Predict the 3D structure of the following.
Amino acid sequence: MTVEKRTLGSVIFAGIDSNPYLGTLYARLLKGYGLSLFNLNQRSSTELFNAKEKTDILRFADILSKSNDPEKADAHKIWAQEIAILMHEMYPQDSLVNLYAGDVFSSVGNHKGLELVNKDYSEPHALEEIFAQFRGDYLTIPAEPSQRFFGEQKNAYDHLTDDCFSYSAPTSMGKSFIMRMFIKDEIMHGAQKNYALIVPTKALINEVRAKVIDDLGGEKNTEKVNYLKLHNYSVVTAASDIALEDDNRNFILVMTPERLLYLLIAKPRFDLDYLFIDEAHKLSGKNSRAPFYYKVVDKLVHRQKKPHFIFASPNIPNPQVYLRLMLNAEEGDEDALAITYSPVVQIKFLVDLKKGRIEVYNDHALEDQCRILLANVRGSGIEVNDFLLAIETQNRKLSKEKRKQSIVYYNGRDKAIRAAHSFYERIKPNGPRNDPLLEALSKDIQEEVHQWYYLAEMVRYGIAYHIGYLPASIRARIEELFKSGNITVMFCTSTLLEGVNLPADNLFIMENKIFLSEMNTIDFRNLIGRVGRISFNLFGNVYFVAERNSKITTDDYVRMLGQEIPEQSLSIATDPNVLKKVEKQYVADILKSGKSEIPRRVNADGKAMQSEESYEMMRRFATILQGDIVHERDTLVRREFKDFLTPADEEFIRDTFKDAEVKPDDDINTSVDQTTSLIAAIRRERNPLRYPDLVDGKFVYDDVLAFLDELAEVFNWEEYEAGTLGKPSLRRWYAVILCQWMDGGGLKFIMDRALEYHQNHPYPFWINKHGSPITYNYLSDDHHNAVFGDTLEVIENIILYSISNYFLRFSNEYRKIRGDEALNRNNWYEYVEFGTTNPLTILLQRSGFSRESARYIKEHHEYVIRDGSTGQLKLSPALARCGNTDVRNEVIYIRQNSPEIFEADNNDEG
C-alpha cells in the first residue's frame, strides 16, 4: 500500500476553508462591519467578539496569510487580508489587532497595505526580519528604488524580456504599471528603442500618455530628471504627431489598435521593439475592434525584426491563449502567468429596494448561506440617493484627503446623466462646495461646452459624470479632481471598464448589463475590481442594487458572483458566443463565389440575424482572411478558417483576386469592393470624385452634403453603415456638424447652432434612444442636455471615427492616383482630424495640444513667437501662466515631451 506523503502545511490548510468556527466568526465580522457601516449597530464594536474570539479570528488570519496550499494559497491570503482589514476597521485603536494586521500584510508581501495599517510594524524574530529585508531588496522596483513590487508583479516583470509573454491579474494589480516601470528602467539606462502601448479606447490615451510622461518627464518623477529629453524620446498618440518626422528620435507610442495600424501602414519601415497590449481580453470579445488587434500583430509578426509581444489582461485563467497569435508560439505555462492574488479586497452588499432588504454577501460561505441580513427597510421609501446623501453629508465635514469617494455605474449614457442630475437636485439645498478648483472647472465647461450643460453646474457640488464622448481636457480634469477628493461622486457608464483608474471607496452597481446585453464574467469582475485601488485604499464597498422599477434582482447579482471566469478563446476561434460556425461558413461561401462584398446575414423575413458589432467583426475578419489568402500569409485568421476552405478553394480565391487591379490591403476599415468603387470614382473622366473647394475659406453645406452622398454610393453605406451614414436623413444632420467642425467652430458654437435648429424644427425630437418622439421644448433643461449629448456623441463616433476613417481612405487613394501633392491645399481628412483648416491650430495639435487649447493659443497670438534665426514658430514660456486652466495643464506635459517647441525661459529651465 502506497502512503501519500503530505507536508505539514498541506495538512494545516487542507480543511481551513470549511472550518465551521472560522466560518461563524467571519460571518459575524461581516455582519458587524455591515451594521456599523449603515449605522444600524446598537452595540459597540467591543461587543462584537469576546477576548478569546477576537484572538481566535486574528490567529485564523495569521494562519491563512502563511498558506502554501498549491491551489488555494492566493485565496487564503486574500481572505486573511479581508479579516485583517475588517478587524482594523472595527478595532482601529486595538494594539493586538494592529499587531496581527501588520503580521498578515507582512506575510502576504503586501507592503503598501502594511504602510496603511501599521507603518511601524517590525518582524518579531531576527530571522524573519532578515528575510523581510531580503524580500524588500528583491522586490525593489529598479526604476523607482523607493517603491517595491508585489511578489506577483515582480514575477511578471522578470518575463518582460521574453520574446512573447502573456499575463493576467486582478483589476487592482497594476498590470500597466509593470509595463511602464519596465519602459522607464530601459530608457533610464540608455536604451534606444521604440515601444508601443495599445489601449482599448481613445478615452484612455490621454491618461496613459500623462502617466508615461510623469514617469519620465522630470516634473513628477522622483529623480527630477527629464529622461525623455536626455535620451531623445517622445510620447506620441497619433500617426500625425509632428515628432514622428524626426528620424533620429525614439518613441513611446500610446495608441488604440486602429491608430497603431494606420501608423504601421503609413510608415512601413518604422521599427518597433516592444508591443504591449493592455486589456488583452478584447481579443476574446465579440466587438468590431477586435480584428484590429489581430491585424496589428500579424503585420509585426511577419517582420524580419519582430518586436517583443506582451499581453496583459484582467482575471482570466488562461492568458496563454493570446500567444496563439504568434506563428510559432505554443500554448505553454512558461510563457504565461495567471495571477490570482489581489492586494485589495471588496466587501459586497446586496441592496434590494423592491423587497426592502439590505444584506452583506459572504464569498466564503455555501450558496444557501452567502446572504447575511442586515436590515429590513420595507416601506421606508429608501433609494440610492439616500445612501449617497448620507456619505456626502459626512464628506462635508471632512478634509478632502479623508473624504469617501463613490462611483455609480449605469449601463447607458442617458441613465447615468439622469441619475447624476437627480442626485444633484437632491444635494442642491446644501449649496456648492465653494471649492476654487471646482468653480474654475465649472466656468471652463460653460465656456467650452455650454452654460446649460448639466455638468457645468454639477461639478460645483462635487458631482460629475464620466462618459466616453466628453472633451478630453474636461474628462482629464474631472478624473484628476476625483482622484484628489475635490469631486466625490461620479456617475459612470462602461467607460469605467476600459481601464480608467479612478480611486473609490464605494461602488454602486445599478445594472448587470453593458448597454442591452448582460455582462460577461470578465467584465463583471473587472467592474467590481474598480473599487479598492492599492494606490489609494486597501478595500472598497460594492453595493449591488436592485431598484424598484428595474428588472434586475439581487438574485441575478448573486448568480453572477457565484460564476467562475471561464477559460477564454480568441474572437477568431469558432465559438457560439463570439464568431459562430455558421458565420465562418457564410464568409467562406462568399469568398468562394469570387465576391468580396460581405452583406448582412438576414432571415427569410429580411431581418438582421446579427448585431451591428457582430456583423462588423465578421466583415473585418473576412477582409483580413481575403488578404491573407491572396498574399499567401500564414496567419492565425487564415488557419482558423481551414475547416471551411479547402486548398482548392484558397487557390480559386487567390487566382480571382491576385490579378485584379484592386487587391486586399491592410486597411481593414474598407473592403475590396469599396476600394474598387472608390478608385473608379476618382478616375472618372467626367466629374471625377474629389473634395469640393472651399468658398472664401469656408465649407458650403450643400457641397459637403453632396460629397457625403457620393461617398455613400461609392462605399455602399446603405449596406455597411445602415444605422448611421447609410441613412440620408442622418447624413444631412452629420453634414451640418461636419461643416461646423471643419470650419473650426468651438464646441459651444456648435451646441448653440444645434439648439437653434431644434427650436426652429421642434418635432419630432427624441429625449432618449428608447422613447417616443416628442415636441422639443426650448425652455427645458432636459431637452437642451439631450441635444448636447447627441451632438457630442456624433462628433466622437461619427465625425472623428467613421467619417475620419473614410476620408483617410479617400485621401490615400486620391494621392496614389493624382500625385502626392494633390491634396496639399485641400485635405478634408486633415480638417476632420484637427477640426480646423488653420495651419497654426493644426500644428499645435500635432505637437500635443487639444483642439480647444490650440484654438485658445491661436486667438491669443501673443504666446506665439517666430524664431528670428530659423523662422520657426515657438511658444512663449508665459503660456504656462496664461488664464486658461486646460492650456496650463497641457503645457506642463508638452514642455516635458516636446521642449523644442518652446522658446527658452530665462526664469525656468523647464
Notes: Residues 8-138 form one domain. The mean pLDDT is 91. The chain has six domains: 8-138, 151-338, 347-561, 581-664, 701-828, 838-901. The first strand starts at residue 140 and ends at 141.
